[in-house]
Amino acid sequence: MSGIALHPLSASTAAPGFDLLFLALLGFSTIVGLALLSMIIIWGVRYRKGSLADRSAPQSENNLLEFATIGVLFAVAFGLFGWGAWLFLGRDHVPAGAIHIAGTAKQWMWQFEHDNGEKELNVLHVPVNRPVVVDLVSQDVIHSMFVPAFRVKQDVVPGLTTRLWFEATQTGSFDLFCAQYCGTQHSEMRGQIVVMSEADFGKWLSTRATGKTLAQQGADLFRSLGCSGCHDNSPTIRAPDLRGVYGHPVALASRTTVLADDQYLRDSILQPQKQIAAGYDPIMPSFDGLIAPDDLEKLVAYLESLSPAATSGGQP
After folding, report:
1. Which one of 107, 155, 237, 299 is separated from 190 by 20 to 30 angstroms, measured CA to CA?
2. What range defines the domain where residue 246 resides?
3. Does residue 161 surpass a pLDDT of 90?
């Protein structure tokens, strides 16, 4: 019979920081709780009904002690808050050289697709000691990708692309769960993340039956959806040239500038009127509801591949 693990498995670069914060919160709460409990017990016993305690003494004040206590508790509480905020914001800073994987959540399974086109169902193979970014989309309801050993969790919302990244520190197989109730078989929506050495991962990936890469599939979609008719130097319709756009600033008609990152590309496909490029008419139609979430990721991968310098630079 297995008991409660006092030291849960820690297998990512993020895990030690979150574990230490948890222990600090637990220690702070324990100290304050025991202090309050002790005062309740001491004063409850001392001034219980029928006790001989002297109740005639006038009230006394110690402002220095009161302000010192409030100041210490305030400093510790906000110190813990700042510590947690720093760890939380770190989720948005992906190290350079990360591997990008497209992830799709749907009732009730996880589908992952590597850059070379290799697909996996409820299993994800990744290398150890290397950052991995999973771009997540949902095909139906809200899900949440949760890997306890990595201390990472990210909601997957329909119509929105979210991102989860981690860097595993040891090889092995680690549980993957959906942490958001998503229907009758929610408890069965689970999988495994298999962490391999860099050499073993390279061998595994090279021996898989690979087809077209995500970028190549995106290029096919770009042509089949008619995007190339406008953006590939059309003689009749003037549209922005998308080569070299990703990772660089784009001037907008609103006289502001935006960085052409992943989210900008997705918004430009689904909500083209949201941020109109300066010097161009707002004539692009919306593809919202016309393309599947995984096809959207393929289009984004293709547009990123048109700016190889920005892609190799590890854009967040």
Report:
1. 299
2. 214-312
3. no
